[in-house]
Amino acid sequence: MSRRTPLIAGNWKMNKTVAEAEEFIQALLPRVATADGVDVAICPPFTALTPMIDSTRGSRVQVFAQTMHQAASGPYTGEVSALMLSELDVHGVILGHSERRELFAETDKALALKVPAALDASLMPLLCVGETDSERENGDTERKLRHQIQEALAKVPSERLAAVAIAYEPIWAIGTGKVAEPEQAQEAAAFIRALIGDRSPEQAQLVRILYGGSVKPENAGEILALPDVDGALVGGASLDPGGLAAIIAAAS
């Protein structure tokens, strides 16, 4: 039986004012109060981090940031550091989301520094990896995943690999309505676990691998039942408290 507790993380992206976030969290908290056996996180924009941390104290809901810079401080206008997030009592941070990679030129080289920086600040890194439509069509999925995993985790000690959660997000399925077939999601998750196993078989059995790519209440149960999928990184469906609660219920 798996020792891994599923994680459902709702990535709000650039959505919700503080007032809208407060309305959301007050609707979500009673819906998930009895959801046992599952970890829950919301990932609001920077402006709503402190309000959400204050509103979720004492609950089962954790608060993650959507990105951070690898440096502790410096001339990086518009950026925040791991220590700044930790000071707010943020629990974790999404790193390497495909939108950050594509739109804001986040590189594997930067992620190799960001992941250990997050760990050193007692933040859980939620590392996103995945292939484009053309890469899958060309049979390059495993090559892409191997490169992303090996680069991003290169500076993480082998005994700490399971402190990083990994989200497999097929880029072709993000916001498109497409969803990887269950066998595709399982195949990718198992491959990622095998890559971790190359460094530490023990950590490979503990590391949580999430699926991210148009997860909805209607398909969550089938995805979360896969043996190597330990949760979901939810995009659009996480903007509705009822929808996110239904996915959390499917995981619990």
- Quaternary arrangement of the chains shown? single chain
Structural class: alpha/beta
CATH architecture: Alpha-Beta Barrel
Mean pLDDT: 95
How far is the first residue's CA from the last residue's CA?
15 Å
CATH topology: TIM Barrel
Keywords:
single chain, 252 residues, alpha/beta, TIM Barrel, 8-stranded parallel β-sheet, 11 helices, 8 strands, 43% helix, 14% strand, globular
Mind explaining what this structure looks like?
Helix 1 runs parallel beside helix 2 (49-56), helix 1 runs parallel beside helix 11 and helix 7 packs across helix 8 (182-199). The chain has helices at 18-32, 49-56, 82-87, 98-104, 108-120, 133-137, 141-152, 182-199, 201-206, 217-224, 241-251; strands at residues 7-11, 39-43, 61-65, 92-95, 124-129, 165-168, 209-211, 231-234. Strands 7-6-5-4-3-2-1-8 form an eight-stranded parallel β-sheet. It starts with 6 loop residues before the first strand and ends with a helix. With 252 residues, the chain is an alpha/beta fold. It contains eleven helices and eight strands. Helices cover 43% and strands 14% of the residues. The protein has a single domain, classed as TIM Barrel (Alpha-Beta Barrel).
